[in-house]
Amino acid sequence: MKTKAGFVGLGAMGLPIARNLLAAGFAVRAHNRTVARAAPLVAEGAELASSPADTVATDGVVVTMLADDVALREVVTGKDGIGNKLGRGGVHVSMSTIGPATARALAALHAERGTAYVAAPVFGRPEAAAAKKLWVCVSGPTAARTRVRPLLEAIGQGIHDFGEEPHAANVVKLAGNFLIMSAMEAIAESQTLGEKHRIDRAQLASFFGETIFGCPIYQNYGRIIANKVYEPAGFRLALGLKDTNLVLDAAEEVHVPMPLASLMRDRFLSGVARGRAGMDWSAIARAVSEEAGLE
Amino acid sequence: MKTKAGFVGLGAMGLPIARNLLAAGFAVRAHNRTVARAAPLVAEGAELASSPADTVATDGVVVTMLADDVALREVVTGKDGIGNKLGRGGVHVSMSTIGPATARALAALHAERGTAYVAAPVFGRPEAAAAKKLWVCVSGPTAARTRVRPLLEAIGQGIHDFGEEPHAANVVKLAGNFLIMSAMEAIAESQTLGEKHRIDRAQLASFFGETIFGCPIYQNYGRIIANKVYEPAGFRLALGLKDTNLVLDAAEEVHVPMPLASLMRDRFLSGVARGRAGMDWSAIARAVSEEAGLE
Amino acid sequence: MKTKAGFVGLGAMGLPIARNLLAAGFAVRAHNRTVARAAPLVAEGAELASSPADTVATDGVVVTMLADDVALREVVTGKDGIGNKLGRGGVHVSMSTIGPATARALAALHAERGTAYVAAPVFGRPEAAAAKKLWVCVSGPTAARTRVRPLLEAIGQGIHDFGEEPHAANVVKLAGNFLIMSAMEAIAESQTLGEKHRIDRAQLASFFGETIFGCPIYQNYGRIIANKVYEPAGFRLALGLKDTNLVLDAAEEVHVPMPLASLMRDRFLSGVARGRAGMDWSAIARAVSEEAGLE
Amino acid sequence: MKTKAGFVGLGAMGLPIARNLLAAGFAVRAHNRTVARAAPLVAEGAELASSPADTVATDGVVVTMLADDVALREVVTGKDGIGNKLGRGGVHVSMSTIGPATARALAALHAERGTAYVAAPVFGRPEAAAAKKLWVCVSGPTAARTRVRPLLEAIGQGIHDFGEEPHAANVVKLAGNFLIMSAMEAIAESQTLGEKHRIDRAQLASFFGETIFGCPIYQNYGRIIANKVYEPAGFRLALGLKDTNLVLDAAEEVHVPMPLASLMRDRFLSGVARGRAGMDWSAIARAVSEEAGLE
Predict the structure, then answer these.
(1) Measured between beta carbons, which residues in chain D are less than 8 angstroms from residue C179?
(2) CB–CB of A269 and C262 under 8 A?
(3) Measured between alpha carbons, how far is D92 from D8 in angstroms, rounded to an integer?
């Protein structure tokens, strides 16, 4: 018999992830606020749930992939939320990018009910999700982590375990997004320096991407920033601002000044102020060019 | 008959590079201010030159690998410099990390004498130099670049050609060092955030180094900064300050604000102020920890 | 007959302000969470109220001076809050340093009840409050502003009117605190530069305070930062962090990057991380010295 | 008999200063590279000198007010410079804004010749110079300082003595210019915050200028930045960049990180990149507005 899995949130990331669960043999029962988004998944065999609570099967495992902390809290604690429906022994696998305070609060709520919060945020763009190439970070109670491992193996190319604490994997995700945005800033500054010294931006990008920075982040963003084409967005600049605020809030909580994160916040905020909220977050590179008198 | 090559500057990088030239069959005639440094090279078959000028053979190719712009200018234009000795058609292959203004000034000096300045800075630490694993950027007059190509192939794993302009490869080198120091700052901030959320720094480093940042810079500096061991230095913090000033000067010349480079300059300057000039340049991570109340 | 005035919040600022109201002939009915704090005021003729709601007299004017947005919201909307007690035509004079979003939210709550929110934050330390030397910024509905003017005249040396919008005076207060903290950073950097060039910090401070910066902020903080004595606190560093966050939140709301405010946030956050939360907020100058290798 | 004074440099500041010397009864012998600039001074009784050296009278006191370190070095050490002409006991009163390294180098050159370098930079715009309202900082050998005091009294409203060291007064001048530019940044950020919250910039400026920041710098720049009128320039933005570099160089010399000065350097550099070199230096406020999506 198939293992059951509830799924809430069929956005750009959620949909391909849910598809991979289906493909791997899970019986998926899914909910999305905009019902139409669920159609392709249902066509592939998923059941449609009328609410987050309605995704919960007897097996008691529900995956959520939502836009932000507020949406996630609502899906857990709202009237038709999964919180009261999961049932003792149930597991909530949370893949959203959220702050550690929310993670701990949800973990506490679950603990009261005898259910478990497992943080399982992922790294990778929608194409990577579709290709089962995500990197998954996981943390939470050991038994629950062990139980959902097959599910996580069905959606990614590698699982990295950060232990018992509910917030740990969420902090790792924030750290990663911070590393990515920092690399974008460095790339943008270096290419602008190069451009004004009459060096081809694309050549600069490919040189570093082929040598000392031979990794996806530098290769992809090096190319995007060299080409200066920021639409359509792979990850929206407005989300970059949201994530930077999560990083800074997580840092404030434990009293860590992060001047580079502060710089990035100003970059994203300026991007939003200048009407670039819907562009790719790497569009912060435009401000670097503008400050140098280009564009 | 062997191709001849003069060589000036047998420091941590120069010595292994010169050795590889010898090993590849070049007749190397080398000079170093501190003569003792030349001993191992002479033992392997190099000739000892009494001055920079004295390294110049009839073939008229001299490689320089020196500490800074001032040292390089002296080696070219000084009393016993190579400038007047090279002879029409001679080529000066400059591997030092210098500013574009110096590059252009030297190129102009050479052009007056009918000799050529070829910029050929390299990426890689001393171990990489020894292993013939350097990445070489090259720019300068086409004929000269073509002529010295076999020499560059003898010392690295790949040559990237940035065209005719004398300063181009030097700017690429500065851009690269800026990218590296920026990555160090981002790594340090992310690890400090992690540490204060009780996440193991080493695990954080290895996660990113194995996944989205799977490239040498993040792997090596991720590990060093996780371990907080900054001695002995691979590249001295004082040199980090020097290079950041070269970056900022190159940026000022073409009117490019680089706020992240400004941040790095303050980091290195503070490192020097606190007695860390001789540590590895990644020791800027200590300030990140200190500002968060650690250490 | 005396004009009546309710008063909530008898802290370092609230107490001397309430005393000046008493001295000016107002019948003050005051509440403070810690009752003992009210004793001196009662000794001078004030009535003691058992709750915020209990401070409301038939005249329907209540002044609040509270620690933060959360405390203020509770005093207005809590079970024993002033909100439902004020009565149609009542006026809430809010002197706390709060964010514009809270100001607008409270103004809306009051408007629903037919009462008015008047923002009246003040500039000045406790000594200035005692000496009736505060500067008062005011904004809110015209009729309400006009009505409470005598009350504001009783506590300060000048009233500046910022019009109808509820949040306006609150934003001015945040802007002012931001200007002060920025001046502290500039003073600290300039004095550290001077000190390491063997110039006396105190002489530097007095020179600028007597000439081009002949105003209280530069005179007072110039002297404090020159002397490096940060205890006892005039205004606690932890409150500096709180206010900087209010500034940044107010800026984010309208999409204004404030890099200098971001720098100050990092300074205050680092101060808290290093155990200086209870020192005067000018103790951020210590980090400037430390980064220069002093102390 | 009149006391004689040589004078080199009749720019926007030099000319009114030289006039005040004339008015105070000094016999002024003046030189300016562009001779026409000297006409008004000659009309008022000054003698015209054909070179810097030619300004030196038997009394051996020469005042210089020049554009930068390079121009000043040339006027002292150049072929027709004052260096060899001053004669034992002569005094060079240097009013230019220069770096401490240049100050010490010139002091050493003078000491070798038995002449003295007295640093006497001034604070104030051209109007203040004309009105004899400058603030003068002075440092250098005691006897020389004492000797030139009457001269300094003739041009300003107050003299502040910073002792024996040649560079001291020059560092004070740099510290002051840094304080001014920092205030401009803070003013610009606070006004942009206010504007986007629908608060009148001019009212904000006048409020602070009349209360806690009741001093010339905040009053003048508060008004200029509120009005957003940056031409004609009182002090050119390009000079702001030059001075910020002097500040940062002076700080680097003694290992002092100055993050706020680094921020200002990026502001000025961006201003130059965007074609604002000839505007008033307060035009850095435009970038603050632009980053917030205004303009």
Answers:
(1) 186-187, 190, 208, 212-213
(2) no
(3) 11
The reply to whether residue C190 touches residue D179, judged by beta carbons under 8 angstroms, is yes
Its pTM stands at 0.97
Q: Are B131 and B122 in contact (CB under 8 A)?
A: no
Show the 3-state SS of A167-230. Answer: CHHHHHHHHHHHHHHHHHHHHHHHHHHHHHCCCCHHHHHHHHHHCCCCCHHHHHHHHHHHHCCC
pLDDT band at C1 (very low <50, low <70, confident <90, very high): confident
Sequence letter at residue C2: K
Q: Best mutation site among B204, B249, B286 for testing chain A: the one with the most A CBs within 10 Å?
A: B204
pLDDT at B29: 96
Position B236 confidence tier, pLDDT thresholds 50, 70, 90:
very high
Per-residue pLDDT of D87-127, as tens digits, reads 999 999 999 999 999 999 999 999 999 999 999 999 999 99
Q: Which of A132, A173, A228, A242 is catalytic?
A: A173
Is D228 catalytic? The answer is no
Q: Which of A189, A203, A260 is the closest to B185 by Cβ?
A: A260
Out of B259, B270, B275, whose CB is closest to C291?
A: B270
What is the torsional sign of CA B104, B110, B115, B118?
A: negative
Query: C274 to chain B: nearest residue by CA?
Result: B293
Residue B244, pLDDT above cutoff 90: yes
- For residue B269, the chain D residues in CB contact (below 8 A) are 251-252, 255-257
Between strands D27-31 and D156-161, the pairing is unpaired
Residue whose C-alpha is closest to residue B24's, from B12, B36, B16, B32: B16
| CA–CA gap between residue B45 and residue B39 (Å, rounded) | 10
Give D266's pLDDT tier (boundaries 50, 70, 90): very high
> How many Å separate Cα A16 from the centre of its chain?
13
Q: What is the 3-state secondary structure (H, E, C) of chain A?
A: CCCEEEEECCCCCHHHHHHHHHHCCCEEEEECCCHHHHHHHHHCCCEECCCCHHHCCCCCEEEECCCCHHHHHHHHHCCCCCCCCCCCCCEEEECCCCCHHHHHHHHHHHHHHCCEEEECCEECCHHHHHCCCEEEEEECCHHHHHHHHHHHHCCEEEEEECCCCCCHHHHHHHHHHHHHHHHHHHHHHHHHHHHHCCCCHHHHHHHHHHCCCCCHHHHHHHHHHHHCCCCCCCCEHHHHHHHHHHHHHHHHHCCCCCHHHHHHHHHHHHHHHCCCCCCEHHHHHHHHHHHCCCC
The yes-or-no verdict on residue A58 having pLDDT over 90 is: no
Q: Decide if A257 and C267 are in contact by the 8 Å CB cutoff.
A: yes
Measure CB to CB from residue A269 to each of C255, C265, C267 and give the nearest one: C255
Q: Say how far residue C145 (Cα) sits from the centre of its chain.
A: 19
Note whether D86 and D112 are within 8 A (CB): no
CB contacts, 8 Å: C257 with chain D: 291-292
Q: What is the DSSP string of C133-172?
A: -EEEEEBS-HHHHHHHHHHHHTTEEEEEE--S-TTHHHHH
